[in-house]
Amino acid sequence: MTEIAFHFNAPDKLAYVCRFARKALRHGAKLIVLGEPPQLARLSTQLWGVSPVDFLAHASQSDGAELLQVSPIVLAQHLQDLPHHDVLVNLTSLVPAGFEQFARVVEIVSSTDEMDRHEARARWRDYAARGFDIVRHDLNLKG
After folding, report:
1. Which of 42, 61, 80, 131 has a beta carbon 3.0–4.6 Å from 76's, enabling a disulfide?
2. What is the pLDDT of residues 58-89, one digit of tens each?
3. CA-based radius of gyration for the chain
4. In terms of C-beta density within 10 A (0-12 exposed, 13-18 middle, 19 or more buried), how is residue 135 classed?
């Protein structure tokens, strides 16, 4: 069964995705990041410049099958025709259809955007209603 995890209180969701992706890649995971085009464009820029000496290689879903196969991170607008199904990072406001094909789903929730928090609560209820156990990570408690 797919593992669902909510990471709450991210002060900057896209910066947190970058940190999460770096850590996941170090552990051998491959990621699909699901979002809307403007958000994915901003994330792409951040992934290429994680630090002055570091970047996270990635591709967009429209880049073609060959490039997607070798990309550890794929930025996607939908969950069809994806090269891997390790970790899905969902940046959309809804539970994505087809999330069950992934080993893990990570939901990142803003610490400052009340609408984002409200939508996350609805997604939590949706996953729970489907019978999924949910792991909660409060980023305020990490340190």
Report:
1. 61
2. 999 999 899 999 999 999 999 999 999 999 99
3. 14
4. exposed
pTM above 0.70, yes or no: yes
The number of residues in the chain equals 143
Closest CA relative to residue 125, chosen from 34, 6, 25:
6
Q: Where are the beta strands (DSSP E) in 56-103?
A: 59-60, 73-76, 87-90
Burial of 139 (0-12, 13-18, 19+ CB in 10 A): middle
